[in-house]
Amino acid sequence: MAEWDIRKLRILRTLRDRGTVTATAAALHMTPSAVSQQLTNLSRQLGVELLQAQGRRVRLTDAARLVLRHAEAVFEQLERADTELAAYVDGEAGEVRVGAFSTAVPALVVPAVTALRAARPGITVRVREAEAQEAYELLAAQEVDLALSLAAQAPTAGDPRFTRVPLLADPLDVALPRDHPLAGAAGLRLADLAAEPWIFGGSGPWSDITRGACEAAGFRPHQGHAAAGWTAILAMVEAGMGVALVPRMAAVPRTGVVMRDLCEDRPVRHVVAAVRKGAGEGGAVSRVLDALRRAATDRET
After folding, report:
1. In 157-214, where do the E strands start and end?
2. 229 phi-psi bin (left φ>0, alpha ψ -120 to 50, beta other)
3. What's the CA gap between 210 and 207, in Å, rounded?
4. 37: which of 15, 76, 92, 256 is 20 to 30 A away, CA to CA?
């Protein structure tokens, strides 16, 4: 197969357009001898004569015109590639893979993706639901480009592999049965519910968060029932089986459940994003981070 040299093909095209070696050299900031040498080398690489002497000038052979006819398609494709590459470098195009825990997907990721579709349609976001530990394993393995998790489950700020970006302080509200005596009480405190049966997971991050919030309020919660999914937890609250702390991001309205914010010692969970070191400083990843920050700000306002 002939060796097609893009730089030399550009010289040949310029010669066709300018008409003389001297004019070609001036246009390309080369010497006439360098132009002649490059075109001689190209002729040798392709195995055909490209130029014929015509008095003191040269003219393109039919083989040279055939070569340029095909080369134009290559130049056109390279122009498209340059345009797309520039968009990629500027963060206007590219694919970003996001790993996020379940409640962050509808609350933060979906609004961010919706906004990006309108503002930067060249960016594609691919979402993968993953618990905190899995999300960081995927990030370290370069299977996702950005991970969302709770700060308590995220690598420390000193981890040399990642850059952490705070997104949101998500308040924890208490879910009560609608007919609970304290459902309408003014100034509800977490400590007022110390004697209640609590519903939370048997282990894992939400168990730790619930126990930690209650212990900070001065009591150890009695676990009446164990459940990890918010649908199951809120269904049991609605049935009067106990009370639960529910992050505001995860709350889904239910007829028989009253969500109350806590006036004192209101617990929060901190949501963070993380990227590999250096990855969030430009390009499409930084655009997705910006969209996530805006989605988080919209939730807080």
Report:
1. 162-177, 197-200
2. beta
3. 5
4. 76
